[in-house]
Amino acid sequence: MRTLRLYALLIAMCFTVAAQASVSYGDFGGGSEVGFLDVTETTTTADPEPLYGAPTLISPGVLHFNPLLFVADAPAGDTTGSLLTMTITAPEGEYLSTISIAEIGDYATLGVGAVVQAMFGAIIAQGPGTANVITTADDAWHSSLAPGFMFGHGFWTLDGVIDLSQYEVESVVLTLDNNLLAAAPAEAASYIQKKGLTITVTHVPEPATLFLLGAGTVLLAHRRSLRALTR
Questions:
Q1: pTM to 2 decimal places
Q2: Once rounded to an integer, what is the mean pLDDT over residues 42-66?
Q3: Where are the beta strands (DSSP E) in the chain?
Q4: How is the chain split into domains, by residue range?
C-alpha cells in the first residue's frame, strides 16, 4: 500500500507545483566523486517551505541535512511531509553499490493516548516516470513511539540501506518520501521533530576498470621480475 502511495505522490507532484513550489539546492560533488545533482525539496503538507533546508557535503559520498522546521505537533493530530529528489551519480568508471539513509530526531508525549511516528520510503529509478523504477523501499523504515505513560520523551532514529550492486548502474534518481505524525486525544499532546538526515553512497569499479587495474598490476609485477633477473 505504501509503495502505491509513493507512486501517487510522484504523479501528484506534477499537479501541486503551482500551489507548493519546489526548492532547488543545486549540485553537490560529481566528476571523480559521488554526485548529488539537482537536489530538490517539495513540501507535501500545508507547512512552510523549506522543511529540510540546504544540505552540506560533509565528505565525498556523504550528504547531510540539518532540518530546523521539520516538526509535527498536536493537541489533536498533525502530519508533516516532504519529498526529496536528486540524481545520484557514481565517480567516473564506477557503479553505484549502496545508498544508506539515516535519520535522527526527538519527541515528547503528554497524556495517555498520545502517539508520534516517523517514517520514510524511497523510490530508485533510472529516469522519470514509474516505468523506470528499479527498486523501492517503504514500510521497513518506520518508527512508532507511544510510551503509554503520562509523559514520555527521548530520541528516535531511522536507518536503511538500498543495495544497488545487482543493477550495475552509474546513476539513479532517488525520491525520498519523509513524514512525521503526531496524534493525541483532546486532553493530551504530542510532538516530534526531525533533526538530521544523512545520505551515504558507496561505489565499486566497473568490470572494465577492474580488468585494466588487474592487467596493470600483472604488467608491473612482470617488469619487476625482469629487472630482478637482469641485475
A1: 0.80
A2: 94
A3: 23-29, 35-43, 56-59, 62-65, 71-74, 77-89, 94-110, 115-125, 133-137, 142-145, 151-163, 171-183, 189-205
A4: 2-206
